[in-house]
Amino acid sequence: MDQEQLDAAFDAALSRLKELPDPLERATSAHRLAGRVQDYAAEFQAVRNEAMNETLRVGKRTSSQLATDLGISKGRVSQLAKGAPPERLFLGSGKVTIALAEKLEEGKLAGGQNKPVQGPVIATEDVQTYERLRELAEDVGLEVAFERVPLGGNIRLNRNNLIVVCGPRLSPLIEQILEGDPHLQFAQDSDGWYLHDRTAGKVYRSPMDSGENGDIAYFGRLPRPDGQGTFLYVAGIHARGSGGVVHWLTKELANVHRELKATKRFSVLIASRFDPETLEIVESERITPFYRPEGA
Length: 296
Fold this sequence. Notes:
This is Sigma-70 family RNA polymerase sigma factor. By secondary structure, this protein is an alpha/beta fold. It has helices at 3-18, 23-57, 63-70, 74-81, 88-91, 124-139, 172-178, 239-260, and strands at 95-101, 103-109, 116-121, 143-149, 162-165, 184-189, 192-197, 202-204, 214-223, 230-236, 266-274, 281-286.
């Protein structure tokens, strides 16, 4: 869509809004759309700043030339290009939503009852993963929102700036999307869940299943059901493995962004080890190539 078409689309939307006969509907619609415009404005600005940073970094333009291209001052170019690290866009722009899956867990016996109380909870390991991921996102200048994936795993995936931490066993929707990965797959047999590198013909089982302090996790950018974008996805064979992905990403975010950018689909496996007393991740490494839908 060129600038003329974009302007025409905005003008048409504004005209329809002004023509709403009910003043209450007109007010509420305008208020809602104004909020969405602000959200998109933040995303557009983040993309612009990252692109300016990259343009200067690769030497495609000088600060003076870029200022002329954009119609702003050279000082403003420097301010915007250095305002945030470009790798922030790998995680998202504006406000990033991190969704964690609920699961059923049996609790203690309630007074006077013979059956244990059950209720939806979020694993302690996933909460720790969220906190580390929130810290990483905030360190690169992003705002973070927390969301629960309800029991059954029914989550709205067709939106921007979404990171999902949810094993396939907790969401049939996620499980179906993962089946579209031609390279890496979750699988299950009589010994439990494992990850299968179909391209390399190798099976990865969790060290935790052998009594060791480690796990393997899947990390990828998966397609949205509407085909209009992607979302980031993290899941360990066990919940502890998801924290290993964040530990690794904290060290490698700039390198990962340079290689994969903010929209390219990929999948990769991350191995990690944790301290048995604190349960904090202490080591992490990438153990497969960055696989893409069309190849590694």
